[in-house]
Amino acid sequence: MTPEQAKSAGEALFQAEATGTQIGLLSLAHPGMTLDDAYAVQGALVARKLAAGRHGIGWKIGLTSRAMQDALKIETPDSGILFDDMLFNDGATVPAGRFIQPRVEAEIAFILNAPLSGAGVTRDDVLAATEAVAPSLEILDTRILRADPATGAVRKVTDTIADNAANAGIVLGTQRHHPSDMDLRWAGAIVKRNGVVEETGLGAGVLDDPVQGILWLVQRLAQYGQGLSAGDIVLSGSFIRPIEAPSGSEFDADFGAFGRVSIHFA
Fold first, then answer.
1. What is the pLDDT of residues 174-193, one digit of tens each?
2. Which domain holds residue 191?
């Protein structure tokens, strides 16, 4: 894709979110679209959001589980940027019509108190830069059609990355823990929708260790001379499959001793 095409696609995604109207598959419109192209579109979308007055509060990491990677025929996670208007309080209600096709995932959120950057960052560096970890829910949405109605072609990883890794919201639980106080591989959740258990999972589903997700992100950003900042919230990756969140859904994620977090969709 040319820089002009990436900018145009980013603008189309920005308008899709603003109007609640999905656009067609970028992977279909640009058959040779690469991962670099996808991140270029994401960059254009992010620039458009910043120009509109939003500011970043952190990052999300996606596609960390082997099941999701196998489904999309990739071997690496993806990432996107969290913005201030994405943050919801624990127990809040999402207004009707806020999202197009929302889904929910359970994750462990890292809250940083020091910057992290460079290809040489280690696991110990991640732990040292983390003020706390917390239970969280990520709200996903897609501003791109999941499937093309004419051809049946389905969304590819390049579509998801371009669409800011499909992120739309974050719900932080109130509990805080230091990451060295527990083995995060065993921090898991029972996730209910309307009182029915839909998914369960453990932190180990995220690259065998949620800390590894943060390490992957820092090393990826280092390739572009970027890094994480003090104060960033980083969603380390989901350890459950995405759960559909139609209007009227009530989600409760019980992380046991780690905490609890909930959200309602009007």
1. 999 999 899 999 999 999 99
2. 56-265
